[in-house]
Request: fold
Amino acid sequence: TKYDWFSSVSVMEDLVSMDHNFLSTFGFYIEGRQNALNQLKTMKALLEKTASPINEPEKYIIHPLNQYSLVKRFALKWSKIEELLEVFRNENIRSQLNQMVAYIPDKSDLVGAAEAIVRLQKSYNLDINELVNGNVKGFTSGTFLKSEDCFRMGKAAFENRLFDLCEPWLNKSLELYVKTQKIKRDNITSLLDLCKQYVSLKHMNSRKWSSLSRLNVIFPLYFFSRGFIVYKGELDSESAESLQENNSKDSQENNTMSLDDYEKITDHSNLCLGNFTIVCPNDVKKQLKCYYFTNKQHPRLLLSPIKLEELWNFPHIVRFHDIVSDKEANAIIELAKPQLERVEGSDISGDNVGTVKYRVSSTAWFYDDASYVVKKLSQRVSDATGLTGYSEALQVVANYGMGGHYIAHYDHAVANDSDGREEHPQDQGARIATALFYLSDVPEGGSTAFLQPRIAAEPIKGSAVFWFNLFPSGKGDSRTLHAACPVLIGNKWASNKWFREFGNEFVRRCDLDRNS
Ligand SMILES: O=C(O)CCC(=O)C(=O)O
Ligand SMILES: [Fe+2]
Reply:
């Protein structure tokens, strides 16, 4: 209950002390806010100084190191601001930021971004010093990698068992740390820890040297860096065995294959590097033609024939040039943008479906009636191939991510039965043929590699590559194994149209010879 202070002077002493107490609380409160505000100001100045250029963002983001830097900025800086804003309850900016934080890149994106850089480095033999200076095959970015970035790359390489890449990254990280001594305490501790893990894992069976001298040989700056920090040796307790166990447990838990495993299976890196003219042998080259194609005088194609380029003879792989106009390609991209979802796939056991490292892209699916442009495209490719889409003809539009790729695969389902074919519950049959449209140019990388003929088709905006996945007998043609090479520089948009067996029986008649 409220006290009537005016009724006793003596009790008013309490008021005096209350006055002082509250003033000091008030002072703390203001100081706290001031501190937070100052930190926020510093952070804002830093963010402004390092902001990505607002004009022509599409040019900025085609460089993988800029992509990495952008992801890092959100994953580390903006989430930090969220912490600072904790002090300011119920304020507009907080709720706005909370909403934003729900879908900005987080730490797992940063790991994915580092993995992408390492994947690109492996696929395209990128020079580590060039990368540190922001350069990728002559494309400069203005993004420079720091000690902690190199540590992140080393860790990504380590966790994907790309040990030959891990070592130089960790050494680079130590070198930059010694040079600048700018790295968070947590990070330098983890860096040194990772160096030790690396050495014990890599040289587990070698008894030639003690582990300390091995560390010294492999990471010459290890002990020097260690000297910089108050380092209590808490890492020494872990033995090589227990670290190993942890690692294998991790990969089982994630139930994903490492990049290394996939590389072993697919090994298309050299193909991705080369281009068609280099790998196409002369005897085949002589047989390949370019001509105007009317598909047996199809009326629409008589009016406007398609420029056809043969990329290979057996299997027959062709490219239709200028089959999509720039305007149509852009319209399809705009249509797809709001509907993109990260592609999922099954893990190596085939039991679990989720995000996978072997296919990094997002897709949107369309029926023919989604838009006039989609329908027109379907019609044009039907005119050119004679094949018709099944009743709900679908077209999938894909946008590749950082270092986005798709490892070697068949477009027709491959099951265990002797035909290499799967049951198709919707009764549409297997994917008889593929038309792969390129909706954007890609300055570097992103080719479609056919592993058996050993050719790589560059993404050329407006063109489509076409091939049959099945022999006329209906048996899968194993020569069609193909992969999407990692995108090095650029933003790759592609679109697939798959034709099914059913409805196309008279266009491509069954053959009794299983292998022709
Ligand atoms: O994008 C590419 O180059 C190939 C894509 C592909 O093979 C697929 O989506 O099935
Ligand atoms: Fe494919």
